[in-house]
Amino acid sequence: MVEVVKAGFYDTIQDLGRAGFQHYGVPYSGVMDMYAAALANSLLGNDLHASVMEITMTGPVLKFHCNTNICLSGADMSPTLNSQSILNNTAIAVKTGDVLSFGKLRHGFRCYLAVSEGFKTETVMNSFSMYKGITTKHKLDKNDRLPISESVAFKIKNASLKIDDSYLNTNIVEVFEGPEFHHLSKQQKKVLFSKEFAISKYNSRMAYQLVETLDNTLKPIITSLVLPGTVQLTPAGKLIVLMKDCQTTGGYPRVLQLKESALDVLAQKFSGNPIRFQLID
């Protein structure tokens, strides 16, 4: 069991998402950065669908009440185990009574904590992913106790693994044309791919709104399907990138669609960070 001694800014339990229920209006949810979550699980030998803790901006203080193995990936939040610095992307044995803490955010925005065999918390509609109105809790709070399986410590092996985390620092967001892309003028398209856009303060697991606007005369569309990575253009010219907790339908023109790996890039950005859209042929 893992005890939340102190909650971070926004900690949740997530897996790869709640697929197959969108026709009921249920969001996909799931980890915002699939690459980081999959990496942490892989380094522990977990199934890729094993649930992880998604830690946003500032980390919690966690006390372990059984032996297990952990791995952190994604954002570097200066993690320590019993006040000793530990590294991301490394399998680490944890003993009963050990305390995991986090400090200064060095780079990135979301960190993922995997434990051997995953967190054994509530499942709803075949998923561990927390979402308000679907699961009992939508985020972790102080004194929460999270069931995990006891696991023996890994044996240290004389091997190293080179991790490509360059996506944490890039500002390039790869996109495909959206269903209504062809309605944009040549000038609008030029601006979309030549201008730098900044992440606004209105960013969450549901959507990222960008600061800069795009001159827009497009009319709303009949409510149509949307999914994580859909970029909507509002009548006021605002660009809204839908994220993992987004709604399942929308009435704004869908001008772009993010490549799946581009969602990982965007998930590690926060207010003020610049991005550039790059069109994939």
TrEMBL record:
GO MF term (any one): hydrolase activity
SMART domains referenced in this protein's UniProt entry, alphabetically: AHS2
Claim: Electron transport is one of the keywords in the record: no
Domain Carboxyltransferase: 23-281
Domain of life: Bacteria
Keywords associated with the record: ATP-binding, Hydrolase, Nucleotide-binding
Name of the protein described by the UniProt record: KipI antagonist
Organism: Yeosuana aromativorans
